[in-house]
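Today's session is about reading a structure prediction critically. Students often jump straight to the picture, but the first step is always the sequence itself: look for stretches that repeat, for charged clusters, for runs of hydrophobic residues. Only then move on to the predicted structure, which in these notes is written as discrete structure tokens rather than atom positions. Here is the chain we will use throughout the hour.
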Amino acid sequence: MTGAGDAELRHEVKFAAYATECDSLCHWLRIHPSGFVKTYPDRQVNNVYFDSWDYRAFAENLAGVSRRCKLRYRWYGNDDGPTTGALEVKQKRNQLGWKQRYAATQDIWSPGTDWQDIRSALRSQIPPHARFWFDQYPLPIMLNRYQRRYLVTADRRIRATIDTEQQAFDQRQGARPNLRRPAVMQNTLVVEFKFTPDARQAAAELLADVPFRLGRHSKYMNALRSIAMA
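Below is the predicted structure for this chain, in token form.
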């Protein structure tokens, strides 16, 4: 049984644009005076989001509650279902956020496995204090995946990720994971800037220099809206 915490306080600023803007955005980042460089190979990111039976996490995000949390299971790579990864508790208080991660080192899914068995396999691998969150948010709501690029400024104070090719799959209706019927979504990209409080001024100057209009965005909320309309 393994677990780890990652409680670094940080700001996360997300924007969305049309996917056709991706080349322009990447060019702007490459030539920016902050000296963005690639930090990690591109890869697919996969998440299963969990909620309570009364959709408390969704309602708090929709209302913009200043103190709220999200529970998700994240893994990387091209496997359809949830392989080895980590349960993540993302918490936010006003403008600052942090997360705790609890690793699952053994597979929790194989083709044909139902959600009850997946939850049991994951619950058995996380420490007792992490099970509190799993009990608060037991319902698998949505699975999403996307391709992610990773960059960081030369001084390593501001990180940026670019997410494209987003897909979302409704998990509310069946006993087994839905991995074949994606919701219809707009073809957008999401760029996210992450930085600690001491880099806030530098980040504000960087964000003010973005060469085209971007709108605030949450992949989680956008995917939930998409599956709700499916």
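Discussion point for the tutorial: Residues 1-5 have pLDDT under 50 and may be disordered.
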